[in-house]
Amino acid sequence: MKKLASVVLVLMGVAGAAQAAPVGDATAGQGKAMVCAACHGMDGNSFVPTFPKLAGQHPSYIAKQLAAFKAGERKDEVMAPMAAPLSEQDVADLAAYFSSQKASVGTANPELAAAGAKIYRGGIAAKGVSACMACHNPSGSGIPAADFPALGGQQGMYVAKALRDFRSGVRTTDPAGMMRNVAAKMSDEEINAVAEFIAGLH
Asked: Hey, what CATH topology would domain 110-199 get?
């Protein structure tokens, strides 16, 4: 826990030292979000379980991920060309709009969710897996200052894919490799269980 706290403080310091990003305009972002609607829904609540919900996500996290897609640091054949033409102001406006929307809450398989709740709240001590809520909060609201995303109500299939991508090393944009380190120790069954719990978390 002390190591985690140290990483959070370092990340917060880096964020504070970074140049100020443009101020986002949610109204402008709504118009720009039309192109995002097919995958993420007009209000950021995606209908497709493999596409993430953006509604209610921290604006700094949305902006960081769009910048990573644009720079090629995060790989995705769909998102890369979508992010490529975006200016810093476009990114700020989209982040402001989606973060201002209310995230919907999904339903979860009770049996899987019960197993996932144990992992989310208590980790897996035998494997050295930290509790998810240490970074994402008990309610799934995340920690905006450290760019730890909100997870509550997120699409379960998307969460499971993200964890598998961290585990395989396909996704490498996690600060200090934190998510890769966690996911590397998790089985498919454990990933599916925690993803199912997150889908119904609010």
From this structure: Cytochrome Bc1 Complex; Chain D, domain 2 (1.10.760)
| Cα gap 1→10, rounded to integer Å | 14
Output the CA–CA distances (angstroms, integers) from residue 74 to 50, 130, 174, in the order listed: 17, 24, 10
- Percent with pLDDT over 90 in the chain: 87
Helix (H, G, I), strand (E, B) or coil at 42: coil
Superfamily per CATH, domain 9-99: Cytochrome c-like domain (1.10.760.10)
Between CA 88 and CA 92 the distance in angstroms is 6
Q: What is the pLDDT of residues 128-138, one digit of tens each?
A: 999 999 999 99
Other CB atoms within a 10 A radius of the CB of residue 191 amount to 21
Question: Structure pTM?
Answer: 0.88
DSSP 175: G
The alpha carbon dihedral of 10, 16, 19, 25 has a sign of: positive
